[in-house]
Amino acid sequence: MNLLSVGASYRTAGVGTLEQLAIAESAIPAVLQRLVAQPYIGEAVVLSTCNRVEVYAAVTGFHGGLGDVCNVVAEQSGVAAGDLAGHLYVHYDEAAVQHLFRVSSGLDSMVVGESQILGQLRDAYHAATEADTAGRLLHELMQQALRVGKRAHAETGIDRAGQSVVTAALDLAADHFPDGVAGRTALIVGAGAMGALSLATLTRAGVGPLRITNRSAARADRLAEAYGATGVPYAELDAALADVDIVVTATAAPDPVLTRERLAAVLERRTGSQPLVVLDLAVPRDVAPDAAELTGVVVIDIDGLASSRRTPPAAAETAAVEQIVAAEVEHFLGWLRGADIAPTVAALRTRADEVVAAELGKLTSRRPEFTAEQRADVSRTLHRVVQQLLHSPTVRVRQLAAEPGGDQYAALLRELFDLDVPLATQADAVPEIGGTRA
């Protein structure tokens, strides 16, 4: 099996495309099953966040695996595969490992260094585990990616400022208030992970009083109690919108929650000249695109954040994380090369056992006078000799296989001993390890 990563993010697609590609949490198990049902895909993990949608897969061939992933993504999103091509990035083997480790450490995030991606990646891995679509390769890859992300945050200052998508959006919102956002009233719509992060971030920024609403009142009330906010019944959303300065929307609704008509009606109930600033952190968007045209409403969404990133971490901090990622990629590739030679070593030992068994059979037929005890002694002696002869070479070949170019040692063993070891990568022509397709 080889590793393949196919995705789109804020770097390659606008929010309109991302919301077409976005996969609802409830739909991910079915998408995972469709992926592993494809002929070239053996394992799969799907990561879908507000600014990226990615598939990580263990495949038996590059071209076949890429075609399978693209077909499933196109079917799920309703976007033709040809139309997706300009928005997708593709990483293979070493490049796929490097990309995932950069994602987990926050280097590829819209807000560099944000740590929320670790929770999102953990959820994606958990969903694949529950759906039984992560096998040995992706289990190891995902566990290592989570460890790399934790290490990057623990050993460097890349997240020292506590930056996140919410802090970045709030930073843009501050431009629309003469005295900043402190003391401004705010409403959070949605009580999921992003809603909780929004409450925590706004609290730290001194925004308040804070209110929160959600279709499930119980979840909103729990968050409100935890952060000293006020829970608002969802039926009273319009009244709450008319009475705040800032709105953060972070729901999982498939259609806009704040339509042009709804916001127009809200504006008629507001007093004063201060615009209503809406931070739309949902994908698909919670605010209808045409609502941003209303006078008196300022909408800051993922597209706005992508084009207005302001406070990147210091170069020394990102360089330190890059060094961690590079070292961890090489460590993982060493494990992968060692794992790749295991079937060859197993085949060699099986061949040795077969030879011993055949010779013991011949000996038994030639020397029928041997007792069972004598035959057992001969058998143990032969097995010990073979195991001693094989021990040093197999240990050494495992060590050599973990080094760059180590795959040639497995090939040499197969050639020398004429071993028949099925190779998954023979199913398709593939680029060199580390190759990237875009």
From TrEMBL:
SUPFAM superfamilies: Glutamyl tRNA-reductase catalytic, N-terminal domain, Glutamyl tRNA-reductase dimerization domain, NAD(P)-binding Rossmann-fold domains. GO terms for molecular function: glutamyl-tRNA reductase activity; NADP binding. Keywords: NADP, Oxidoreductase, Porphyrin biosynthesis. This is Glutamyl-tRNA reductase. It catalyses: (S)-4-amino-5-oxopentanoate + tRNA(Glu) + NADP(+) = L-glutamyl-tRNA(Glu) + NADPH + H(+). Its EC number is 1.2.1.70. Belongs to the glutamyl-tRNA reductase family. Homodimer. Pfam families: GlutR_dimer, GlutR_N, Shikimate_DH. Catalyzes the NADPH-dependent reduction of glutamyl-tRNA(Glu) to glutamate 1-semialdehyde (GSA). Residues 321-419 form the Tetrapyrrole biosynthesis glutamyl-tRNA reductase dimerisation domain. It is an enzyme of class 1 (oxidoreductase). The record marks 99 as: Important for activity. During catalysis, the active site Cys acts as a nucleophile attacking the alpha-carbonyl group of tRNA-bound glutamate with the formation of a thioester intermediate between enzyme and glutamate, and the concomitant release of tRNA(Glu). The thioester intermediate is finally reduced by direct hydride transfer from NADPH, to form the product GSA. NADP(+) binds at residues 190-195. Residues 172-306 form the Quinate/shikimate 5-dehydrogenase/glutamyl-tRNA reductase domain. InterPro entries: 4pyrrol_synth_GluRdtase (IPR000343), 4pyrrol_synth_GluRdtase_dimer (IPR015896), 4pyrrol_synth_GluRdtase_N (IPR015895), GluRdtase_CS (IPR018214), GluRdtase_dimer_dom_sf (IPR036453), GluRdtase_N_sf (IPR036343), NAD(P)-bd_dom_sf (IPR036291), Shikm_DH/Glu-tRNA_Rdtase (IPR006151). The active site is at residue 50. Residues 6-156 form the Glutamyl-tRNA reductase N-terminal domain. Possesses an unusual extended V-shaped dimeric structure with each monomer consisting of three distinct domains arranged along a curved 'spinal' alpha-helix. The N-terminal catalytic domain specifically recognizes the glutamate moiety of the substrate. The second domain is the NADPH-binding domain, and the third C-terminal domain is responsible for dimerization.
